[in-house]
Amino acid sequence: MAKAFIGFGGNLGDTRQIITDAIVCLALRNQLQIIQKSCFYQSAPVDAAGGDYINSVVHVETELSPYGLLHVCQTIEQQFGRERPYENAPRTLDLDILFFEGVAQGDTELTLPHPRITERSFVLLPLLEIAPDFFLPEFGELKQYLPKVAHQRIEKLACRNCSCEEKPQYRPSAH
Q: Containing domain of residue 116, as a range?
């Protein structure tokens, strides 16, 4: 079984519920097991149009290949009405494979690790919440990139499964 991390996001409709339902759809797949899920985060769009996004990251273990997992993610996106009218358009649901254990590749269909993994607070904060010492050979420890995304507005949303004692907004001095 390979370890993988998947980013969930969207900014159309009841996004929190859509992401929750999409995670359930993912969990129903026999070829993978959800290990951990981050809290929800609300963030301003980065290089995208529309309103604020809701994001979360899920850690899975899977028997699927990277392309098999990509197919599952795209199928779930389609089930929730994902349309791609133009690059970075507002969306009901977006699933991105952020990391797939043992795989580093850069083709047009699937680049691993995700090429902007260190550039987005809505990826780094939820990922580091569930894997605080996450390390990528080509990037090093991901927490070192937090100061570089400090200007991106993001807020951790309270939920029953999260430690809400933590500061809900990213502040450079907190890390």
A: 2-174
